[in-house]
Design brief:
alpha/beta, eight-stranded parallel beta sheet, 34% helix, Arginase, Chain A
Length: 383
């Protein structure tokens, strides 16, 4: 096994604004915590610095007029024509270096895709990648470039026949679904807070793809207060059979951490314990994985969670050589690996009962309508 952690401190130089929840500097914090816990020291692990992508790379998916407008916004100066392209909103402000930032994000993700394609790596993680909302000709949802779509398209052109895209961010990956809605080369699976209560107000279970892509968009909308127990059970019921039936050449995973109960923008109740259990299922589903960070807006919790994610995906146990030293004498000593873990969280029985009824209906719908299209179950349909 060969693993690559993609990192550049150049991400620290970009800011969407003091009060904007998306913080690119999270990548440096994750890198430093992984280093502290000995998660970058194994001989099969490399840390590589990405180079910015080019305009031509961005044009592999995005409209030329959008790319030109994004380039104009690089100075940080706004004009009202940019609003047509989703630029200059509260979600997607125009800031100095916005085009340069987008090229660096894309360059990091494309480096990961190339490492997977060439066989130089089996696992790659780029914490700042995974901008799953950006559309063909517009920015939205804190996303200015859809690095995921461009990377998947490049992998398919390089000879990969089947890509499984799994998205565990709390927000539905609408930009990726739209890009592959009519193809069976990409199996899109998203677990996210329901569009009834959260942006982008989409991702319902009846969004199943079109044409050749019918049955290749799989959406599991989660109710508010979904916790570890319900999430893990639902994930295993849906993801595992589909992954086994699809037999992907590569998994591209958007592993956003805005599902945590402390996240200020969402209403789920996961801990990083459940998150790690789900990542273990993803790890077992394919020997080649390109993992991308995505969302997460409680920065300390995201940093701990992505550090654990890197450990889980590599089959490592973090070890803190400074345990009992950094914490000092007055505060309780840390507990090594457990210091990264969240405390357990338990729902009230009434909430769990209602939540499980909701999820049971969603799971049944997917099993009855999508599973047969993949040859799963007694009612398997021929394609």
């Amino acid at each position: 096994m060969n693993s690559v952690f993609i990192y550049s401190n150049k991400f620290d130089t970009f800011s969407l604004g003091e009060y904007h929840p998306f913080k690119p500097y999270k990548a440096t914090m994750v890198y430093e915590l992984c280093y502290r816990y000995g998660l970058l020291e194994e001989p099969w692990i490399k840390v590589l610095e990405p180079q910015p992508a080019t305009q031509e790379d961005m044009l592999e998916y995005h409209a030329r007029e959008y790319v030109e407008i994004l380039k104009d916004a690089n100075s940080g100066s706004f004009d009202f024509t940019m609003l047509e392209y989703g630029l200059g909103t509260g979600d997607n402000p125009v800031f100095k270096g916005v085009y340069d930032f987008s090229l660096l994000v894309l360059g990091a993700t494309l480096l990961g895709a190339e490492l997977i394609r060439s066989g130089q790596a089996d696992l790659v993680f780029s914490p700042v990648g995974g901008l799953h909302h950006s559309g063909y000709a517009h920015a939205e949802g804190f996303c200015y470039v859809n690095d995921i779509v461009i990377a998947i398209k490049r992998l398919l052109r390089s000879g990969f026949r089947k890509i499984l895209y799994v998205d565990i961010d709390a927000h539905h990956g609408n930009g990726v679904q739209d890009a592959f809605n009519d193809t069976d080369d990409v199996l899109f699976i998203s677990f996210h807070q329901s569009g009834e209560t959260l942006y982008p107000w989409r991702g319902f279970e009846n969004e199943m793809g079109e044409g050749k892509g019918l049955g290749y968009s799989v959406n599991l909308p989660l109710p508010e207060y979904t916790d570890d127990e319900s999430y893990i059970r639902t994930f295993r019921e849906i993801y595992n059979p589909l992954a086994q039936a699809f037999k992907p050449d590569c998994v591209v995973a958007q592993i956003g951490l805005d599902t945590l109960k402390k996240d200020p923008l969402t209403n789920l109740r996961l801990t990083n314990n459940g998150y790690c259990d789900v990542l273990e299922e993803i790890r077992k589903s394919c020997p080649k994985i390109l993992a991308l960070g995505g969302g997460g807006y409680s920065v300390p919790d995201v940093v701990r969670g992505w550090t654990l994610a890197w450990a889980v995906l590599n089959g490592l146990k973090p070890f803190d050589p400074y345990e009992g030293i950094v914490s000092g004498m007055m505060l309780p000593q840390g507990q090594g690996f457990q210091e990264l873990r969240d405390p357990a969280y338990h729902l009230a029985d009434k909430i769990r009962h209602d939540l499980d009824l909701y999820l049971r209906d969603k799971v049944a719908y997917i099993k009855n309508t999508i599973f047969p299209l993949h040859g799963i179950g007694q009612g398997a349909a021929s394609r």
